[in-house]
Amino acid sequence: MRQRRIRWGMLDSALLLLCVGALAYLGYRVEIGLEYRWNWSVIPQYLLRYDEIDGWVPNLLLQGLLTTIRLSFWSLLLALPIGLASGLLRASVHLFNRLLGGCYVSLLRNLPPLVLVLIFYFFVSDQVLPYLKIPALLADAPQPLYRFLTLCMAPPDQLEAFIAAVITLAMLEGAYIGEIVRAGINSIETGQWEAAQALGLRRWQLMRHIVLPQAFQRMIPPLAGQVISTIKDSAIVSVISIQELTFQGMELMASTYLTFEVWTTVTILYFVLTYGCSRCADRLEARLLQS
Amino acid sequence: MSKRTLLMLLGLFLFTAPLWGAETRQELVRQGTLEQIVEKNRIRVGFSTFVPWAMKDKKGGYTGYEIEVAGQLAEDMGVEIDFVPTKWSGIIPALLTGKFDIIIGGMGITPQRNLKVNFSEPYEYTGMSIIANRKLAGGLSGLEAFNTPETTIVARIGTTAAAAAKKFLPNAQLNLFDDEGQALQEVLNQRAAAMVSSQPFPEFQALKYPDRLYLPLAGKTFTREPIGFAIRKGDVDFLNYLNNWIRVKNADNWLQERYDYWFTTQDWKDRIE
Predict the structure, then answer these.
(1) A160, A262, A283, B199 — which has fewest CB within 10 A?
(2) What is the mean pLDDT of residues B230-253?
(3) Which residues contact B100 (CB under 8 A, 6 or more apart)?
(4) Is B141 helix (H, G, I), strand (E, B) or coil?
(5) Which among B169, B154, B161 is positioned nearest to B128, based on CA atoms?
């Protein structure tokens, strides 16, 4: 694909001036209209702090960002198989399977995520997680596993809450991913199905070798959107006191009353993360198109 | 069944009944939070961020009056401590579902809350005060002056400050916010005339924004609220331990001393920023 050379015209200059002017006016209004004493100088120490022993270490906000990344990573890892299963169920030839998948998807999609998170945390996780006996397992765990868990998931004392949050998010995102998978499967032309059947492929062979590989390529753009959406949705679990970015930001605001500085910083951190992800998705898509 | 066997069975029952009672009691003690804490060598403390009760410090840990109280309690019990920061609006359900053992978070003792949780004796008292916007409230003084329908009052949701605002300022419009920073911002931005909050928040803010905010009650409080530890119901042993701990700490004046440090000075400010 050849790109046309971009020429800088009068209209572009005018638009640029207009944008800068609008931003300057906004800044001016904030300065005049908002009775607020800005104090940006204390924010950097909440990102990184100097420790006598360890040197530079991430502080509250960066720790929160790391937790957000871990949370999103594990929920997505769990949501993808859930979504694939629900998508396959929804596209199944059997009525029972379709009803099962449909039940899951319509239940999860029609509840506000916030309500779902609260219900799941206070009721469901309470009935299920104690049986896993996580604290007892951790007490006997060898040191490397201990370090691995702390590094990749959460510190042992927060692990139970973290797992509850991961499962909730995965269930929620799984419903949306399921619909993406179903749409992907349904978008494959009937000719492909018929050809595969004519070759004598069984249903699952047909899915595995013909339909899913093609569907996967078409699913990439909406899946990338869902990944970004998961990162954003992870902010919801701040209500159950998972110490991710939003929660840490709100704690910091309650401690320092630096409402706008902290929110602005949190916004920028989220944007950097999600924008990075969407650029990666764009490149992945471009590469898949080439091959 | 003959009369004799019946009598023997009755006798057996009468002899063993006290034994069952003792067993039940031992079981109760063993299941109690106190024993569980000692057994696990770990007390989990739930709290929410309130200045200066409990705050994030700049090293990523926690600091504040309640944090010191909790730390001392754990030290006296000889166990490790886990701090579980929790949103104030969900703190009681979290306690009831066992996410932590105790709330040490400046929780005011109220009859409504007491229906759901047990409170220890008060280990400190707090009071409500108001802080007002100079331009909007324009030198109104006294609480009654704010009790008019055209006055907007803000407070933090779910706190005793919100309850006090409803009770003492029934005619004013009340807007509730999730944390104190947002509520204060409403007053600073002249969208609300005043904010109801527990001491010493109003004083500290009046010192920070002397040209915009003032204290209509001149530093006095209009309520006096007892603050206690909150624990799950039905746990006599733990409650007894806490009450006596408070007695001991009151007797050697430790509680008062720490209270004065956190509530009447701002020496701790550099731990936060």
Answers:
(1) A283
(2) 93
(3) B44, B45, B46, B82, B84, B86, B94
(4) coil
(5) B161
